[in-house]
């Protein structure tokens, strides 16, 4: 799809284990592994970044190649979408992969669901990334969430709803 700076962005889903591990390595709360296959199956679209050096061709990673970054869109595929899981392996951070994944996802929305309301929840470290792609603060509304499992914030486990 899009190759530059030693990385290629392609449309596709990670394996459940890669998804789990990449979230964890990127400092995001790792999901319960047993819930991941269904979650991935219900994606609107996902983008993966691979090191170009290991690719078989411009859009095909080698069979054992593991993505170094990812991002997904979930939702009803028309009016309401949520940008989630933008995660970059620590060894590949600060190379523009989060930006490239986000741009690829926004380009996909523009082409396939141009009337969609796209929302997201940004961690503090990523809050400056998303306005570059047209995202705005929802004030006077506020963001909320509900989750009945543990969550990791700044390396600390927070018990949610138990």
Automatic annotation (TrEMBL):
<protein>
    <recommendedName>
        <fullName>N-acetyltransferase domain-containing protein</fullName>
    </recommendedName>
</protein>
<dbReference type="Pfam" id="PF13673">
    <property type="entry name" value="Acetyltransf_10"/>
</dbReference>
<dbReference type="InterPro" id="IPR016181">
    <property type="entry name" value="Acyl_CoA_acyltransferase"/>
</dbReference>
<dbReference type="InterPro" id="IPR000182">
    <property type="entry name" value="GNAT_dom"/>
</dbReference>
<dbReference type="InterPro" id="IPR053144">
    <property type="entry name" value="Acetyltransferase_Butenolide"/>
</dbReference>
<feature type="domain" description="N-acetyltransferase">
    <location>
        <begin position="23"/>
        <end position="152"/>
    </location>
</feature>
<dbReference type="GO" id="GO:0016747">
    <property type="term" value="F:acyltransferase activity, transferring groups other than amino-acyl groups"/>
</dbReference>
């Amino acid at each position: 799809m899009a190759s530059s700076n030693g990385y290629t962005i392609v449309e596709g889903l990670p394996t459940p284990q890669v998804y789990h591990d990449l979230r964890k390595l990127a400092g995001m709360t790792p999901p319960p592994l047993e819930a991941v296959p269904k979650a991935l199956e219900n994606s609107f679209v996902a983008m993966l970044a691979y090191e170009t050096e290991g690719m078989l061709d411009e859009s095909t990673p080698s069979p054992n190649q593991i993505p170094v970054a990812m991002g997904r869109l979930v939702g009803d595929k028309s009016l309401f979408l949520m940008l989630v899981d933008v995660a970059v392996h620590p060894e590949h951070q600060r190379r523009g992969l989060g930006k490239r994944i986000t741009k690829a996802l926004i380009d996909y929305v523009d082409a396939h669901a141009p009337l969609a309301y796209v929302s997201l929840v940004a961690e503090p470290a990523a809050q400056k990334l998303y306005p570059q792609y047209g995202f705005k603060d929802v004030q006077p509304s506020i963001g909320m969430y509900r989750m009945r499992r543990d969550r990791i914030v700044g390396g600390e486990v927070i018990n949610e709803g138990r």
